[in-house]
Amino acid sequence: MQSFNQIVSATEPEQDYNFGYLDEQTKRMIRRAILKGVALPGYQVAFGGREMPMPYGWGTGGIMLSASILGQDDVFKVIDQGADDTTNAVSIRQFFAKVCHLETTTETAKASVIQTRHRIPEQPLRNDQILVFQVPIPEPLRFIEPRETETKKMHSLGEYGSMQVKLYEDIVKYGYIATSYAYPVMVHGRYLMDPSPIPKFDNPKMHQSNALMLFGAGREKRIYCIPPYTDVASLDFEDHPFSIQQWQAPCSLCGSETSFLDEVLIDDQGQRMFVCSDTDYCQGQLAKNAAEEALHG
Amino acid sequence: MDNLAQALPAQFNDPAEAPLLRAEGLSKLYAPGKGFEPVNLNLFPGEVLAIVGESGSGKTTLLKTLSGRLEPQQGEVIYQGNSQMPAASLYQISEAARRQLMRADFGIVHQHPMDGLRPRISAGGNIGERLMEVGARNYADIRRQALNWLTAVEIGADRIDDLPITFSGGMQQRLQIARNLVTHPKLVFMDEPTGGLDVSVQARLLDLIRNLVTELNLAVVIVTHDLAVARLLAHRIMVMKQGQVVETGLTDRVLDDPQHAYTQLLVSSVLQQ
């Protein structure tokens, strides 16, 4: 004889989790925090973070944001260090494929929601796309001021002069502004923001971006946002202006001269090559090169 | 004679010159006898006022209240940077305006130099931070000013990139003073700046402070329990005991002819050579 539960599970499609893993009330609470964050660009909104089925530091903040904004028609892409095929990217993509039954992709152009750690895709984003960042430490002033009460006051009164000290110390030690990731920015002339550990190469892409950008810090339980078409300026000195990384050679695979390159060791003799960190972009360039060759050859 | 002794020196009596800092009925009591009872005082540009008294007499509490860091229970502190500027009551203006004013016009020298310095930032960065706080954004210019001030407080120019934790106590205190003076404040508050330093270092530091005060025409409120420090630096002196101001007047008058029993005790307990 079958139990009641067995009968139910036989008649209903298998669905153990709520859509997007989080319950609806939690998703609502997070969406409210996002709306507040959008209304105050760059301001860190506190929210009630939930336990996620993975440790802090693996992208829980980003996953909670993605879970709250994903709908049934969304196409989801995950980037880890620019790549679609690393452990973190694969597991998060599988997680959402399982709890949302939605379409996932590795192509930037196809995705409507992109969760990322460390990179903004090379391909310019559209205004119907949302970029979700995983943030380890949301407070840019932590370097200079360990007290939370004091950093809150500094934010509310807009006292950001001390942040320049970080850049000053860089120039003292290295002769130039050596901060190369998590490079502090001013959002719309009001709030100082840590753009999560993206390379400063990506900072200019945040300025007047078409896409909505959401930042989630799971451990610190903070959400902040950059709405589309917002001014984002990187801090600098008059005589040491902001500049992005540059490389001597193009990507060894696709030959791109404009993308962010990773240094990869290729043998025990210390040989190395430089390749695009954005794997989707690199493959796109390769396909384009091949098509052109076929056309001319 | 009495009348003359009580009067302020002529340079501070100019009726055209308004006091820089005015306290009216200012009081902050944590408990009866803890803190200070209503105080009135005027501080004029270029004047050095010493607050002396034993431990627990309310000196530091008074200094904190005067410098905008501790809200009083009664009375107000009125600051007027110059005759063009409107007078600002420190605890009635917004916190943003108060912090702005403190950054631009006040300097605060703490008893323990590390309270006023950032330990993990180079000496140059410590001085430069004050400039960056008030809007300086030119690296070369910030560095040049930091170097000038290091030299002015007798720290070698080659120490500019060293961390303050590698400095001796006296050097840290001088660095703290440089950090405070780089933005050209009008008013500096010092809490036992020579505490914990040996006698020869103390003497050099006092010499330095005295020169800077004269050169920059600074107004200073200095808290000390050391009467020698008060005699060397201060134009006027205020003696406190158990939260009350028991005597006030010109430094020489108070120290040479103390009127109140407690002041007499204080003066007589200094070792005579």
Written description of the protein model:
The complex is a heterodimer of chains A (297) and B (273). With 297 residues, chain A is an alpha/beta fold. Helix content of chain A is 31%, strand content 17%. Chain A has eight helices and twelve strands. In chain A, the strands form three sheets. In chain A, strands 1-9-8-5-4-2-3 form a seven-stranded mixed β-sheet. In chain A, helix 2 crosses helix 3. The longest helix of chain A is centred in the C-terminal third of the chain and has 18 residues, at 279-296. In chain A, 40% of the residues are buried. The mean pLDDT of chain A is 92. By secondary structure, chain B is α/β, with parallel strands linked by helices. Chain B contains eleven helices and ten strands. Chain B has helices spanning 2-6, 59-66, 95-105, 113-116, 123-133, 139-152, 169-181, 199-216, 227-233, 251-256, 261-268, and strands at 21-31, 34-43, 48-53, 74-79, 88-89, 106-109, 187-191, 219-224, 236-241, 244-250. In chain B, strands 6-7-8-3-9-10 form a six-stranded mixed β-sheet, sandwiched between helices. In chain B, helix 5 crosses helix 6, helix 5 (123-133) runs parallel beside helix 7 (169-181) and helix 6 crosses helix 7 (169-181). The longest helix of chain B is centred in the C-terminal third of the chain and has 18 residues, at 199-216. The two termini of chain B are 29 Å apart. The interface between A and B is medium-sized, with 18 and 20 residues.
Runs of chain B in which pLDDT lies below 50 for 5 or more consecutive residues are: 1-8
Helix content of chain A: 25-40%
The outline of chain A comes out as globular
Order of helices and strands of chain A: HHEHEHEEEHHEEHEEEEEH
Total DSSP E strands of chain A: 12
Can you count the beta strands of chain B? 10
Proportion of residues in extended strands of chain B: 15-25%
- The H-and-E topology of chain B, N to C, reads as HEEEHEEHEHHHHEHEHEEHH
